[in-house]
C-alpha cells in the first residue's frame, strides 16, 4: 500500500486548503482511509476518515463543520477540504489507510 499526500502550504486564518491522498496497492481488507495530524510538541491525532466501501465519514470534534473528507469516483484518491482554518490547525497531516499504512506528511501552516 502506498499513500502519496499533497496540498499542504501556508494559509492565513480563515482561509482554505485542500489536501489530496493518492492511494495505490489497496487490498480488499482495507475499508478506511483518513487523515491524522501532528502539531509541534503534540501527539498525533485523528482528524477525519472515510469508509471506502460505504462512504461513511468520521470527524474529530475540533474540525466538524470546517473540514470535509471525500473521495474521487475512481476511489483511489481521498481529499480533505479544510475551510475556516485556524492557527491551531497548524500541523503535519498524514494520510493513513486502515490505521496501519502511513504516507509521508504534508505541512499545513495557518498564520498571518
Distance between the termini: 37 Å
Count every beta strand, where a strand is a DSSP E run of 2 or more residues: 11
Proportion of beta-strand residues: over 45%
**Range of helix content:** under 10%
Characterize the biggest β-sheet.
Answer: 7 strands, mixed
Shape designation? globular
The SSE string, one letter per element, is EEEEEEEEEEE
Average predicted confidence as pLDDT: 94
Structure report:
This protein is mostly beta strands. Helix content is 0%, strand content 52%. Strands 2, 4, 5, 6, 9, 10 and 11 form a seven-stranded mixed beta sheet that branches. It is globular and about 45 Å long.
Element layout with pairings:
Elements: E1 2-6, E2 9-11, E3 17-24, E4 32-38, E5 45-51, E6 57-59, E7 67-71, E8 77-82, E9 91-97, E10 101-102, E11 106-110
Parallel strand pairs: 2-11
Antiparallel strand pairs: 1-3, 3-8, 4-5, 4-9, 5-6, 7-8, 9-10, 9-11
In short:
The chain has 112 residues and is mainly beta.
Features:
single chain, 112 residues, mainly beta, four-stranded antiparallel beta sheet, 0% helix
